[in-house]
Each structure stands twice: as C-alpha cells, then as structure tokens.
Amino acid sequence: MDNNNKNKDPNHNRQGWGIILITTLLVTFMVMGLYSMMQGSGPEQISYDKFLSLIDEGDVQEVSLNSDRIYITLTDEARQEEYQETGRTGNPGNVWSQLQDQMQSGSSTEEESQRDPDYYTGYVNDYTLVDKLEKAGVEFGSKPADTMGQTLLELFLTVILPIGLMALMLVWLMRKMTKGGGVMGIGKSNAKMYMEKETGVTFQDVAGEDEAKESLQEVVDFLHNPGKYSGIGAKLPKGALLVGPPGTGKTLLAKAVAGEAKVPFFSLSGSAFVEMYVGVGASRVRDLFKQAQQQAPCIVFIDEIDAIGKTRDSSLGGNDEREQTLNQLLAEMDGFDTNKGLLILAATNRPEILDPALLRPGRFDRRIIVDKPDLKGRVEILKVHAKDVRMDESVDLEAIALATSGAVGSDLANMINEAAINAVKHGRQVVSQKDLFEAVEVVLVGKEKKDRIMSKEERQIVSYHEVGHALVTALQKNTEPVQKITIVPRTMGALGYVMQTPEEEKFLNTKKELEAMIVVALGGRAAEEIVFDTVTTGAANDIEQATKIARAMITQYGMSERFGLMGLESIQNRYLDGRAVLNCGDATAGEIDEEVMKMLKGAYAEAKKLLAENREALDKIAAFLIEKETITGKEFMKIFREVKGIPEPDETEESSAAEREGRIVMKDGE
Ligand code: ADP
C-alpha cells in the first residue's frame, strides 16, 4: 500500500496554492469594497471659515463635536439651497450610518427622524465657538459613543475579519498538508514509507540463499513465539542486517520474513530520512518507531541503511543531519520493547562503512550475508522465475545458469522476462533455449546493433581479432572452451565477442589459468598485428582486463616471484565494485607497475607466437566468420581440427563442453 502517492501528486499541491490565491484575492476585494462603501458619500469636508459663516447665516441646525472633528447638520432650507448650488444628490448616508441606523432602530421616533450630518470640519481650539453656537440657537453636543462604535466596526472590517479569514485558511491548509506528510509534514516518516498488511511472499519465493533463509527462519520463530524465548530469559534480537551486492534478494528476504510470520511489513529507504533540514531525519525516525510500535508485531525494513548509518566522524564538515538521525535511530533501537514483536531489518551493500555503534549487540547484531548465488542457486532462482513462463522442452536452465556466473537474482529474473518478450516478438507461444541465450546476451552485452554498418576492412579486422581470441583459447590448456564467436555489434559497445563456457563452476583459479586468461585477452590485438601489421582501438577492453588480472596476481594473490606473498592491495566495497586500494609506498608501486608490464609483455609475445604458428587456421576461420557473422564453437573447432589434422574426438566427450554455451570473457569495444 502506498501512503504517499496522493501526496506526491503535483496537481494536488497546485490546487492547494490556487485555492489560497483565490481566497486571498476575494478577501482583499471584499475588504476594499466594504471600506469604500463605508466611506460612501458621507459628510463633505469644509473649511472652518465656511463653518463659521454658515453659523452666522443661521444655516446650521445641529453641530456635534468630536475629539478631532465637528459634524454639521444644516437646516432643511439651507440644505436644499446648498445642494442645488453644489449639485449634490441628497445625503444617502454611508454604510456606517445605515448600519448605525439599524442598530439604533426602535429606540425613539425622534432619533429615527434625525438626519446625518452634511458637513464636517477639523476641530479648532476656538473657545468662542460655544458662544457663537448658543447665539445662533444651534443645538450642539458630542457623540463619543458613536465614534467609538464606528472605530470598532471599522477595525473589525479592515483588520480582524481579514486576519481571521487568513488564519482560518492557513490552519486548513496546514492540516491538509500535514495529513499527507507534504511540505508541512516533513517530519512525518510516512512521507516515503510503504506498508503492506500482508506481503504474500514466502521463503519458497526466495531461491538459492539457503544460509540466509536459515538464519531468518529463527527470526520468524521469535516473532511467532516470543514467550518461548523470553520465558527462559533469552533476549530477542532487535534487528538484523542483510549484507550483499545489489539485486541478490535482500528486500525479497525481508518481505518473506514478514510473509512467513504473517505480520505487516513497513519499508523505507535510508535516504528517505535524510533531508536538507537538520532534525527532520531524527523526527522521522521517532515517528517511524511510534507507528511501528502501534502496529507491532511487525517488520520494519530499512533499505540502504548506509545512507544514515555511515560512521560518524569528528572531522570538520561532518553531516549534522545524518548524525542526528543516526543518534535517534540508536536511541530508538535501545528504547523499544522486543516482547511486542517488533523487528528491524536493514539492508546494505557497504557494511564496512557502517558506524560500529549500529552493529553492537542489542542493535543490528545479526549480520546475514546474502551473496551472489552459486551455480545451484542460479538454477533454483531461474526455476522460481520460470514457473510462470511457458517453456518448451529445449530449455535447459542448468546450461543458462552455467553461462551466467556472477549474475544475481534480479539479473536472472530479468533474463527470463527478456526471453519471454523475445518469444512474443517472434510470434511464438513458448520460450525456447535460444530465447534464453539471446536474453543472457542482451543482459550481459546489450542488444544486437542492426543499424551499425561496418566497412569491409573493419569487418575483416574485427573478424581476425575475435578469431585471435578464440584460437589462443583453443591452443592453450587451462582455458574454457569456445562456445560462440560473433562479429555482430552490440549496443553495449562490443563490435564482436567470443563466448566461452566453463565446464563447471569454479571458485578458485590457478596461476596457470590466470596466465592463460591474460594471453587469451591479448590474442585479439596479437592477431591484428600479425595480419594487418597495424593495431586498432578495438583492444581497449582486452587491455584493461589483462592488466587487471596481472595486477591482482601480483598485489593480491601473491603470484609473482618478485613480491612473493606480500599483500599489496586491499579490496574496498566488496559488495559493490570491489575497488582495490594500494597499501604500499610509492617506490613499491613503481615496481609493481614494472612487474605488470613484464607480465603483459610476456603474455603478448606468447599470443603472437601461438597465432603465427597457426596462421592458416587463423585465416580460414576468420574468412568463415566474415561470411557467417556468427559461428558456433563446434564449427570453429571443426575447421581448426581440419587445418591441424587432428581427428574428431569422441562425440560424447566433445559435446559435454561445446554444447554448453559460455560466459563472455572478452568484449572488444570501439
Ligand atoms: P536487493 O534488495 O538485494 O537489491 P531485491 O530483493 O530487490 O534485491 O531483488 C530484486 C528482484 O530480483 C526480486 O524482486 C526478485 O524478483 C529477484 N530476485 C533476487 N534475488 C532472488 C532470489 N534469491 N530468488 C528469487 N528471486 C530473486
């Protein structure tokens, strides 16, 4: 269930802002309108001088004195006269006076007949005024209460009403946004949290990770029978850390734990905690634990925990927000009661950078390794995903598994899907082994690049280059048999490639095998030089690979005489790119480079020697490849044997190697 989608909807936010804008405009217009109506056609201002002359002429009926104004009401006759002169259309009174009239209605008939003042003038400190008014027989008095009323009403309409409306609107808006964890709800962890009441995933859906499943089975039991463990005094685990490369099924395993234990599954990514604002992450952690405890028993899965769990360092420029978030997480993990059945699972592919405090007993103290699957694991994963796909009898999942050494669960799932799509594309109802192999190639080297038209010369060079690799492979011991040679370019940069098949899965490589691999990798370049007496850019990938192997032999595997068993490099990010970092001084680094160079030179000379001795086979196979574009390992070996005069081997023995298709060991890039 996705709590978040509706809040992420940009239209929703836009609508909110639209409403605010329209309401603000309406309120402003309303207030402006009321105010101008209030001003209405009220009394007109006249000079004090004119006021005095009006008194002298006996035109004033009544005067009301205010603290800063004097309101003048004319006699009926004077009024008519004045209005005729000035063209004023009577005195309809303003909103204020109308309201006032209404407020006062019913008080007395005399007051009802009372007219509104016609003029007003500023108050002047004229102590003779009272005398003058008395002499002229003008009624006078003061109206403080009315002024007060007017001021209050004015205040209400111009200040209190708009502010009140705005405040109401703000409250409404905040509530709306906070509810979904939008702009105002930044502290809410449900901003990016997903909750599934029942995942429906079981351990059967996760193939190949037997050790991980076994460890997690225990955890499921904790959730099922917490009493069994707490009864004896055992503390239940609070968290487990799933460690492994991407795509190996860590999320799937966490879901399976929830599915097996039949408890709700909360999941969110570590990066979802960390925000620009300090303190937001911490408040999200608090909120997450609060929610999870309410739902317990349940599983909370934090993916990519390294985003918040990185080692805190004291150096300058540390990330305050991340540290606060981590501290909060540690505090919450210490605080919650395991007997309720709350379990935190976290996944990472960089366990080495996690803060030691996270891995302490009572926190993520269980580390469950979810590594790349081995051959058996790959077969099982393929079976799990092939269950729902119709396949014909040609399909041999074991052969696919053999060809996909190093692939993880998500790659394999993807391959099965690609194969099914390929079958549909060709109008077939079932998936065949060919579709599966095509899918393997698509995942590993990309799709065929049909629009790339190579010139005749280029095709020739690529062809010799690939046959160079293949021939060096066949001419050496300790290599994997050739399965396929092609000069059809692929989208991931290969202009051609040779596929090799391991006869069985290997966990170790001998020194001889590694040396042979280097010679094979350089075989392409050697063929170019022998045949065309020039070299091309096509060998870049081979050179990189050969150098990597040679370097690792010297620095990591202790396979050079010069350095012996000295460990010169260590591997970082084992579950990601496996980058190596040198552990030696500059002088030694220089010596390592020399040794690598020596090794590569030797291997290149060996490749050139092998090819020069077998020039006829090289030419014949290359010509055949140019014609066919793709040839199988069998076709390759047939020509090779013919040229060399080697008899055909026992059919069964040969098929064991060549029928299986192989891992791609070299790509020849542009
Ligand atoms: P991770 O969390 O380790 O990056 P995921 O659990 O998200 O990997 O795996 C992605 C997908 O790959 C899964 O949904 C599943 O289809 C497939 N997959 C990965 N590992 C396995 C496995 N061991 N068994 C079956 N399917 C797997």
UniProtKB/TrEMBL annotation:
Gene3D superfamilies listed in its UniProt record: 1.10.8.60, 3.30.720.210, P-loop containing nucleotide triphosphate hydrolases, Peptidase M41
Compartments where located: Cell membrane; Membrane
Binding site for ATP: G244, P245, P246, G247, T248, G249, K250, T251
Biased composition (Basic and acidic residues): 657-670
Listed EC numbers: 3.4.24.-
Molecular function GO terms recorded: ATP binding; ATP hydrolysis activity; ATP-dependent peptidase activity; metalloendopeptidase activity; zinc ion binding
InterPro entries attached to this UniProt entry: AAA+_ATPase, AAA_lid_3, ATPase_AAA_core, ATPase_AAA_CS, FtsH, P-loop_NTPase, Pept_M41_FtsH_extracell, Peptidase_M41
HAMAP family: FtsH
Annotated family: Belongs to the AAA ATPase family. In the central section; belongs to the AAA ATPase family.
Subunit structure: Homohexamer.
Function recorded in the entry: Acts as a processive, ATP-dependent zinc metallopeptidase for both cytoplasmic and membrane proteins. Plays a role in the quality control of integral membrane proteins.
Full protein name: ATP-dependent zinc metalloprotease FtsH
Gene label: ftsH
